[in-house]
Amino acid sequence: MSSFTIKEIFPLLDNYCFLGDENGMLNSVANFEQDGDWSQCVMWLADTALDKNRQAVHSGIGLLILSEKSYEYLKEKPQNAILVSQPREVFQQILSAFFEKKWTPMIEKTAAIHSDVAIPNSCYIGHFVVIEEGVVIGRNCFIGHHSVIHANTVIGNNVTIGTHNTIGGAGFGYTKNTSGQYNRFAHLGNVVLENDVTIHNNTCIDRAVMGSTIIAEGSKIDNLVHIAHGVVIGKNTLVIANSMIAGSTKIGENCWIAPSVSILNKVNVAEGSTIGMGAVVLKNVPAHSTVFGNPARKKDG
Question: The whole model's pTM is what?
Fold first, then answer.
């Protein structure tokens, strides 16, 4: 990995204080559980981990990101330190800017793309991706290997879709006929992923019966999530691994849906709500509530 100087980090930051040698060289990251030479490593220290890691902090660290409060309590001050109010956030900015592998815009030869779909030249389309007719894809999008984008899906700008996802397939809808047999209910709608949405891996998002299943701007969907037909998820909401959002559910902005949550069809989860791990939500959730359990109930206080 190539090296860079500490001062190259400064343009990323606002409201920070730097102490030390800005020409110090960095080439890797580490945490306090790792052994080895930390002299060119970037590390961060949370206030909550100060007592646990106080003895590990020393002047041989290439660069330590921490708060002013933590810095003042250290017995041995690091040689190079950036003091900020949100050390973890700044550490993540550094990881993204200097260490994360950047993808190169291209369409892999094994991708199968319908002839009427225009792919902006700023996008990456992975191996064995399938993109059907009528799909619209915005700028700076990434679609990982083996994902399938079904007909008429609309994808905004700066959308990331990981591997082995199915976006826009038919939902699980059946009606029983007079003979008691199940007939599939036609799904004629689509899926809309707005700008800056991220879909991780092995997730399924079904198209609506009519209209759209919508994942609004800035929302993030984790691995192994099922989002059924006609669901609407508001802006900046997180839906975490193994969750199941049943048909026609509406989830507001800035919600947190914890791992392994199940939400009944047509339930409304209002803005700013938190659904606890493994909760089974059978009725509407008021704004800015925390619910948990089976059946889910509101947290006292």
Answer: 0.86
